[in-house]
Specification:
Length: about 350
């Protein structure tokens, strides 16, 4: 029967004694391949009666060979110096290179309507990974269109309440709960929180984790201790100004990324506050910079590289696995990775507490 899958790609790989990625490359003619390996895979596919579905055959026939990565376009922003984007793209790039694909970067402007479907209609990409998305009406609608049209995509490090989009994410709520609980264990009772914009689900999750830790520690949530930045060093530097009048009492500070925490520390140094008078600080991301700040930053380590690899590998399977293609939108994947608190001097010192 046309389009009926008798065997799976995994079974073909096991029968031929090769990896699933090798089966994919052979069946799609992607990348260099030993003739002996190619023949072995083709014989196994024929023997087992492996026939990709009509949808998968169409995907393969029209493939561009490109995996697209959608990134926000922010004028004058040094996007690739960001630990988040550099690690994520490195992970995606590793997976893409291994499977013989090319990586196509697609920039979106916040000032223009989002139209992701056009990338597929123009046959620029076979699948896309969406990075840096925000929970806004235009963004939701653009992603819904992708799902309705059954274009392969994944949203990374963002989730949308009420939607069932395929996602790879991190448990930011738990990571934040660990960070704030650690500050409480260090004796902090007045803990500030410098967060990012709540249109990012990871910011909303971190706020939830902060609130949960305070409740578990029987501490009151004081809205005057809540601050917002945009994840840049400059925004942390500016937010510190709003903390100044609270510093005699604020004995702990949780910051949503290392860059903002570095901005806060920069302002503290300008005020010539002795280190022992700083609030205990825990940041987020655990970038390379966290280890070389003064003092070295305690920070929640997030597996951005692994997120990128997982997202790319999942998407690159779709065109070669009819079973996965059929269920991709019926049972959307939600891969949830774990974060880990790394403790350094910024939260362990005998910092000043009001006496």
């Amino acid at each position: 029967m046309s389009g009926y899958l008798i065997a799976t790609r995994k079974e073909v790989a096991e029968f031929a004694g090769v990896s699933e990625a090798t089966v994919s490359r052979v069946l799609n003619g992607v990348g260099p391949m030993k003739e002996e390996t190619r023949s072995k895979v083709l014989r196994a596919a024929e023997k087992l009666g492996y026939v990709p579905s009509a949808l998968a055959r169409s995907f393969a026939r029209n493939r561009s060979g490109n995996l697209g990565v959608v990134l926000p376009y922010i004028p004058k922003a040094r996007l690739f110096s960001s630990y988040y984007f550099s690690e994520m793209l490195s992970g995606i790039g590793s997976a893409v290179r291994e499977q013989g694909y090319d990586l196509l970067l697609l920039f979106r402007s916040e000032q223009e309507p989002q139209e992701y479907e056009s990338f597929f209609l123009a046959q620029k990409v076979d699948a896309i990974i969406i990075l840096g998305s925000r929970d806004e009406p235009g963004e939701r609608e653009a992603i819904r269109k992708l799902k309705d049209a059954k274009h392969p995509f994944l949203v990374v490090n963002q989730h949308f309440k009420g939607e069932s989009f395929p996602e790879v994410d991190v448990d930011h709520e738990e990571g934040s709960r660990q960070a704030v609980s650690h500050l409480i264990q260090q004796g902090c009772k007045h803990i500030g929180f410098l967060n990012g914009p709540l249109t990012y689900s990871n910011s909303a999750d971190r706020l939830s984790g902060y609130q949960k830790a305070l409740a578990e520690g029987d501490l009151h949530l004081d809205s005057s201790y809540l601050f917002e930045g945009n994840f840049s060093r400059r925004s942390g530097y500016e937010a510190a100004e709003k903390m100044r009048e609270l510093l005699p009492e604020m004995d702990g500070l949780f910051v949503s990324n290392d860059r903002m925490a570095i901005g806060v520390l920069q302002k503290f140094r300008e005020w010539q506050i002795p280190e022992e008078k700083y609030p205990k600080i825990v940041a987020y991301d655990d970038s390379d910079a966290a280890e070389i700040t003064v003092p070295p930053l305690s920070s929640v380590s997030v597996p951005f590289y692994e997120m990128g690899m997982i997202a790319a590998n999942k998407l690159l399977q779709i065109g070669n696995d009819a079973e996965l293609f059929r269920t991709w939108f019926d049972e959307p994947v939600r891969e949830l990775l774990q974060a880990e608190l790394i403790v350094r001097a910024s939260s362990r010192r005998n910092t000043h507490v009001n006496n």
